Amino acid sequence: MIALHINIDHVATVRQARQISEPDPVTAAGLVELAGADGITIHLREDRRHIIDRDVRILRETIQTRMNLEMAATAEMFAIALDIRPDIVTLVPEKREEVTTEGGLDIAGAAEIMHKGIAQLRGAGIRVSLFIDPDAEQIKASQKAGAEDVELHTGCYANAENSEELDREYQRLVSAAELAHQEKLQVNAGHGLNYINTQRICGLPHLRELNIGHSIVSRAIFVGISQAVQEMREIIIRNS
Ligand code: PXP
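That is the input. Now the predicted structure with pyridoxine-5'-phosphate docked in place:
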């Protein structure tokens, strides 16, 4: 079955709005795991706008499933990852002024620091996933860069404004998933997925993991975090 990794960044966003200690993403991670998540995803951003270093340290000790650390390919972040040793590192592009991660990584044009960092992470036994647009050039470059996984950016699919655009974006994801599998990369996907558009994404060929954050944390405000996780898991079970 497709694994569900839940991104709990926005629990920390609410905490940081007041700069106090609640709600604690560590508590959220425990509840999300009890509700059936297969992994916990967190993004330590350069500006520490939601997840902070303290969360990363404590979560490394408390997560019982798998810890997926999203981060930019910078010297600072590679050093943190090599110290903390998450199960998976997902490299993402990062801009200070963006509201959320905007596009996929440019692996094809990646700088030396990225290749060196990937080799160091893999040498330390950390699985490396690259968050990329569903694009053939980026997939081939990801394979060459030494990644084990790619996470296909589903943002354009999620933001499609009409059914033709939706079908076109879905087909791009299908082709990208086929190619990534052919290149021996594990196929993951995420960004902008919710209780409506995830159903079709579950039909992507070779899909192994989903990373979903905002929609689950949003729903949790109204129905509670356990129910929000279980409802998403049911969508995945029904469509896997
Ligand atoms: N995957 C990656 C690489 C991301 O950067 C994000 C957002 O932090 C997500 C998945 C989750 O996206 P969303 O919050 O829209 O579900």
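The chain has one domain: 3-239.
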